[in-house]
Structures are given as C-alpha cells and as structure tokens.
Amino acid sequence: MNPTTEKSGKYSASEVDAEVKDIRTRFFDSVSHLAIIKDPSLRYVCVNEPFLKVLGLDSPSDIIGKNNSEILKGLTTEEHINQLLIADHKASNLPTGKHVEAEIVINTPEKDCTFSSKKFPIRDDSGNLLGIGILTCDVSEKKTKEKKFARDHKKLTRKIETQADTLRAANKNLQFMEHVFQNTLDGIIITDNKGQALQINPAFTEITGYTLDEIRGKNPRILKSDYHDENFYKEMWNTLAENGTWEGELWNRHKSGEIYPQRLSISAIHNSEGIVTHYVGVNNDISELKRKEEKIHFYAYHDVLTNLPNRKLFSDRLRLELEKAGREGYQVALLYMDIDDFKKVNDSLGYTIGDELLKQISKRIKTLLDDSDIFARLGSDEFAVAQVDIRNINNVITLAQKINGLTIKPFMIEGHEIFINSSMGISIFPDDTDCPEQLILHADTAMHQIKGTHLEHFRFYTSQMKIEAQHKIDMESAIRKGLMKGEFIPFYQAKVSCKTGGVVGMEALARWVKADGKIISPVDFIPLAEELNLIHEIDTRIITSAVRDMAEWEKAGHNELVVSANISATELEDPAFVDTIFSILEDNNVAKEKFELEVTESLIMKDVEKNAQILEKLCTSGINCSIDDFGTGYSSLSYLKKLPIKTLKIDRSFVNDIMTDHNDLAIVCAIISMARRMGLKVVAEGVEDADQVELLKKEGCDIIQGYYYSKPLSKKDFLDFINLKRDRAPMRN
C-alpha cells in the first residue's frame, strides 16, 4: 500500500501496522550501516542486508538464533569475540538512550576490515530488556587515514624535536662560544670583508689598549708598529687570499705607543657561495714568552748562579779573541783558577752558603778586570780569565797576585767568616799554543800541579807539564787495560813471630805485573788510581785474590796464617764495604778470624766516630783490625781507646835508624810499652838486619815484617817460602 496515495475512508489498524513494518524493513535494509538486533540472551534475531553481505551470507536464516562465537568464528580472533561479548553485556545493562562502543577486525573475502559498533538496549514501556540494537560501520579507511596521520604526526613530531634539539644545541654552542669569546686570554677581532672592525673581545682590549668604541669601523692597521716593511704585509695578505689563513709572529704597537711582540692568526670566513664575508683575527701577547726564550738562550751560554759566561761561551769568545790576537800580533794570558777544598764549605755550611761564596768570589774578581778581558765560570769551583793584549809577563803576574789577594781575604756570609785558598794555572798565547782548547788545558794542567799544596798560589805552564800530563793519560789507559786483563795481583810479605820464629801471617801488597813480566811499583800507580777512583776496584781484586790464596794454603795445611790487607779511604766511604768483605770471606770459606784489615792512622782521623763504627762492625764479626804506619799521623791516645783494634804497626821510618838514632829508638820503645799496657800486639815493619831483630825482641815486639826475613813474594814463591819455614827449624832465634 502506498501511503502517499489518497483513499477515501480510514485505514484499519492491521493495514497501518503492515505499512509501518514494510517501511522499517526497507529502511533497515537500505542504510549503509550494519544493523543487528539481538535478544536478551544475545542471540541474533534480526540483521540487515549489508551485514549479510559483509559476512558473505545469503539469508538471515543462516544467522538467526546464533551467538557471536558461532557467527564470527574464523572471521576474527577469539580476543575480539570476547571483547564483543563484554560490550554486549555492558549494553544490556545500560538505560534507554545510552550506548557503548566497540571495534572488531573481520577477515572478509576481500580484505581485513575494521568495524566500529554502537550498542544500546531495547526496552519496553516498563523498562524490561527486549534485546540490544547494534549499528556498525566500516571504519577501515578512516583507520588507515588515522594510522597514516599518526605516522605523519610522529614523523613530524620527531622532526620538530630534532630541530628543537638542534636549536637548543646551537643556542648552547652559541652561549659557549660567547663565553669563550668573552673570557679567552687570546685577543679576538672580527672584521667585515673590507677589514673594518666589527667586534672585539675583552682580551683584545687588554692586549692592545683599544676599546670597541675606539676601534669599531677602523682597520687593524692602526696597530702597525713600523717594525715590518711593506713586503711583510703584502706577503701576509697574499697568503691569506691564497690559503684562507695566515699565521705568524709580528710586532704591533699598543695604544700607549709601546711596541710588543704578538702571535697572530687570521682566518677568512666564506658564505655558502664561497665569497669572503668576514675575517677573524686571534692574537696573543708573547712578550713574556720572548723574555723566557731570551732567558733560556742566555743561560744556555751563561752560568745560572753567577751569570758569568759558561765553558761553551768562554771557548767561543776565546777562539775569536785568539784569532784577532793572531792577526794583530798581541798576546793573551789564560788564568785557570780553582777554589781549594770548596767541597768542605758545602758539606759543613750547606749549599746555600757555598753558592753565595761563589757569587762573592766572582764579584771580587770582576773588579780587577778590564772590559776587554773574558771572565767565566767553567765548573763547580773553577773560574777562568782571558787577559787580553798583555804587554809583558809582569802584567799577568800582577793580575794573578791581585786575584789571590782578593780571595784570601775572609768572606762574611750569614754570620760565618770564611777563609779560602785558590790555585791558579797560567798559559800564554801564542807561546804555549795557538789552540783555544789547548790553552785552557795547559792552564788547567799547571793549576793541578799546585792544587792543594798551599805552597804557591799560581804557576805558569811549562812543556814538562805537558810531558807529565801525557804520561798521566797513558798511565790511566794502561791501568784500565791492566784491570781488564787481571794484571793487578797480590804479593805477600811474611810476618814472623818474635817468640817462635815461625810465619804467623803475611801482608797482601798490590803489584801490577804486566804481560811482559815487568812489575810496576805501587808508588807509580796507587796515587793515580786513587785520583781516577779506580783504587776501589784494585783493592777489591787484591783482597779477593788474597782470600782465595789463603783458602788454598789452608787446604795445604797452613792453618796458622792470618792474611792482612791495606784499605783506602774509598773503601771506608763505601756503604757496602763491610758486606763486600763478608761476602768475599764466605764465598771462599775462610774464617773471619783469618783476615786482618790494616788502616792508616791519618785515614781513621778523617772521621773518628764514623770509622770507629765501621771497624766495630768488622771486629765484632771476628775480623782483626790494626793501625798501619803508627806514629806518622796524629798518635793520639784519646782516639786509640775508641777503636776496636788489636794491633799497632810501627812505621818503617822509625825502625830504619833505631840502631843509631836515640830518638827513633825512644819512640819505638814507647810504642811497644804503650801497646803492651793497652793489651795490643805490635808489628815492626821495614826490619832489614839481625841487630834490629834482636833489639825489637828484647823490647817486647811481637811480630817482625821486613826484608830480613823475606821481600814481597809472588803466590808461588811465598808458598815455597812458608813450606821451607815449616819443614826447617827457625832460621834465627
């Protein structure tokens, strides 16, 4: 029935219901949304055509009476089905007019589609639940657009955040650069491409004196000092144009007018098109650096303490002066001076006072010199003066005497009155040599001839000194080679008991036996070895060899012997000396009681307390200690009682003339008597005849050593000697 067609009369109720139902059905099937009605048990009771189409079904009978699980299984996930069930329950509990929303993804034959549903309750007039209505639309395209929008939004957000981070970093960097610009110690100036100043930092003002207001718009050439020519600046700008940078040192002028050195670097700033837009100049004042460089250069050629020329500068100036003297025909005298015993000043008063003493010495000597003279400090306590254009030798002597006169006057330093002596050697150009190095060497040689004697204060070099110096050089080389070849060996001189006449020991004496059999006397090499600090090595070898020989002789049955050896000052000053002796004895299995050390009286007196401690350590272990050359040094009873010695050895100078010189006899008798009362044994050395032996026995001497019994013998000869003494009766009673 068409409701728009006019009819006469009234509609019946049934006709109206049918018409309305038809319209509802057509509306239900015509909407684009999926329309669903479920009963209170949530089973499908009505669906429209679009819903059937989405599910691919032909008739509502395929759905009516079924629930979500039955309809949607295989088309969506269990999770989505459960979510729909929960939404249905929520909708059934809502009042009329309210709804809930839910989404579901359904796998249609064509594609996966996302559907959005609104679910609401259907109730009668009494509010009883008749079912739930569901309107669903396909939101797949909307979801796709939303996802794309979300992706685009996220991408845009990241880009914005990145740009924001970049801006923040750039701003932070700008702030940092501004901080650096304002606080760096280097002066910075920024100009336009024409060189007109735009900006400077505070350090630039500090260095140049110019403020920004004073320099803005001006060219930095206002700082030019006129120290450099136009070519310098032309080359600077050519380099800057070619390379974009220039760096170097130059002299500029401060606002005050003062000229100062600076280190400058200029960099060109280009835009994106490569065109120069600005220049940046960074400079710093290097005045202090230049002063330090000058100071370093100065002290490379001068003594730090006295500011005098050092050896290198002195040699250079002396060479030039000698070349000039050779051309112009005048003489030059070289005075080489050494302060005697200067080490004692440092050791007793300290290095500070020692340094001040050297300064005062140099100041005094300067007052005696002409401007043309060359004065230098060559070493710790050594000075040199080159006296230029001397007229005669008297001029040199006068200067040497004046220097000596100034140095012997006392020096007052921090309350200490210090007296010194000096030794001076003098050589003359060209008489002695025309070589500057040789001239210094000759003066040094002459100085060492008198150093420490206190008998004369200066000496002129002679050719004989050159011969002696060369001999010294040759001897040094020979000693070193001799040590390497093992040419230093002990010879033994017997010590004979006055009571028994038997050999009770021997002294190991150093001998230098060369490859050709020639024997060098200790007098010829010991002093030089001490000067060269080689005496320690010689002493150690002699002691080691003597102990090794002692061990062999003990095995041969000579158990009664005690070997003795002299030690030098070097040994006593060596902290490892005691341990070295112990080690030598232990290595050769020789008892400490079989070894005796002989120490000269003068050596002990250099430091009685210290040396007493060393000897105490030796004697406590069992080693015997004796005083050698007794009577030639201090001969003080006060030091004798402090020392742990067991033997006194009377020097040969007293023994030689005891038969004819009453004074020598009295001294020998006094020593023997004193030793007996102190419980010490006495050894007399240098005994050469029977009368001396008899006298010494009569006076109570314990042991005799000398040529009367035996000269110093080699190892083999000494063994033969003691074997003979053992096999025969004593040679003399």
UniProtKB/TrEMBL annotation:
<dbReference type="InterPro" id="IPR000014">
    <property type="entry name" value="PAS"/>
</dbReference>
<dbReference type="InterPro" id="IPR000160">
    <property type="entry name" value="GGDEF_dom"/>
</dbReference>
<dbReference type="InterPro" id="IPR029787">
    <property type="entry name" value="Nucleotide_cyclase"/>
</dbReference>
<dbReference type="InterPro" id="IPR035919">
    <property type="entry name" value="EAL_sf"/>
</dbReference>
<dbReference type="InterPro" id="IPR052155">
    <property type="entry name" value="Biofilm_reg_signaling"/>
</dbReference>
<dbReference type="InterPro" id="IPR035965">
    <property type="entry name" value="PAS-like_dom_sf"/>
</dbReference>
<dbReference type="Pfam" id="PF13426">
    <property type="entry name" value="PAS_9"/>
</dbReference>
<keyword id="KW-0808">Transferase</keyword>
<dbReference type="Pfam" id="PF00563">
    <property type="entry name" value="EAL"/>
</dbReference>
<feature type="domain" description="EAL">
    <location>
        <begin position="472"/>
        <end position="726"/>
    </location>
</feature>
<dbReference type="Pfam" id="PF00990">
    <property type="entry name" value="GGDEF"/>
</dbReference>
<feature type="domain" description="GGDEF">
    <location>
        <begin position="330"/>
        <end position="463"/>
    </location>
</feature>
<dbReference type="InterPro" id="IPR013656">
    <property type="entry name" value="PAS_4"/>
</dbReference>
<dbReference type="Pfam" id="PF08448">
    <property type="entry name" value="PAS_4"/>
</dbReference>
<dbReference type="InterPro" id="IPR000700">
    <property type="entry name" value="PAS-assoc_C"/>
</dbReference>
<dbReference type="InterPro" id="IPR043128">
    <property type="entry name" value="Rev_trsase/Diguanyl_cyclase"/>
</dbReference>
<protein>
    <submittedName>
        <fullName>Putative Diguanylate cyclase</fullName>
        <ecNumber>2.7.7.65</ecNumber>
    </submittedName>
</protein>
<feature type="domain" description="PAC">
    <location>
        <begin position="244"/>
        <end position="298"/>
    </location>
</feature>
<keyword id="KW-0548">Nucleotidyltransferase</keyword>
<dbReference type="InterPro" id="IPR001633">
    <property type="entry name" value="EAL_dom"/>
</dbReference>
<dbReference type="InterPro" id="IPR001610">
    <property type="entry name" value="PAC"/>
</dbReference>
<dbReference type="GO" id="GO:0052621">
    <property type="term" value="F:diguanylate cyclase activity"/>
</dbReference>
<feature type="domain" description="PAS">
    <location>
        <begin position="173"/>
        <end position="231"/>
    </location>
</feature>
